[in-house]
Amino acid sequence: MKTATQQTHTVNGVNVTQLFETIDLIRETPEISRFRFRATNTWQGGTYNQATVKDFYGAMQEDDTRNPLVFDIDEPPILLGGNKGANPVEYLLVGLSGCLTTAMVAHAAAKGIELRSVESRLEGDLDVQGFLGLSDEIPVEYQQIRVSFKIDADISHQEKEELIMMAQKYSPVFNTVSKPVPVKVSLSD
Amino acid sequence: MKTATQQTHTVNGVNVTQLFETIDLIRETPEISRFRFRATNTWQGGTYNQATVKDFYGAMQEDDTRNPLVFDIDEPPILLGGNKGANPVEYLLVGLSGCLTTAMVAHAAAKGIELRSVESRLEGDLDVQGFLGLSDEIPVEYQQIRVSFKIDADISHQEKEELIMMAQKYSPVFNTVSKPVPVKVSLSD
User: Fold this and answer.
1) Which residues of A touch B28 (CB under 8 A)?
2) SS3 A175
3) Above 90 in pLDDT, residue B52?
């Protein structure tokens, strides 16, 4: 039975007590699990633009408490840019890397599996003939993305493979990339 | 006929001379259009991890000339994090915003359409019951992403709508999100 003096249980730096309390709350009131994440973008000239992340909606309320997080987006000179930031397809890999990692760490924590380190390398194949409109046969999108994980923990190879499966099953960015997701783009006046 | 003294033509800050020269080069040697973009990620504890973007392969060679770009990835407290950075699904929106913007600006430049400003707002719907494994019916991925563009230019509403269509047609991140892309995740020893 839970009491006010119950100690907080943390695994892999994840507050598992709060995690299970959150799960209980969502089972009672599923609406709190609906989030809306946001970004804004302002073109700065050429291939350089800036995105800002700040507010989001979740747990049935707006959250505007974070300081704005500003991201410079640009291309390297070979792609007509000025190297003022990572490029858009690299930001997608950044998000994918973080999402697979967090899904793995959180689900391992929920199962009581302690991890010492998790590292990953990502690489995606992109033919810019698609972007340039030079071929209808060559995909505009990443043709394939490869992710390689190195996990240090006192668990078997088989258990590490299971963590890799869990990461893919529960990662929102992995599933957004590997499945078709509707993106509605419109003009506002 | 091109000569060494030909002036560089720039539209929207995009070097259109270099753009068309690049297109000519790719038509001669399509291999130069094949890129491999990369990121690495190191887990820092809990929902906090760091991604680094640096080298890439493109134009038939490795490019290791950029300084490392390091990105903090974390969750807000309501999602068990410490707010040390934007979260993974927000990074995906950052990449999507930049990619649609660059695709629009570059293709407008190629057509000689001058733009004064381009701004966008993005919002994605995510139900964290998927991430938490609480429901097999609720998608783990973004259920829908909406992007709204504000374009300032001396062109008609119809021409702005055409820019929006071009952005979607030629944006690698838009097409990576809206189409299924294979992501191979493996364990390295």
Assistant:
1) none
2) helix
3) yes
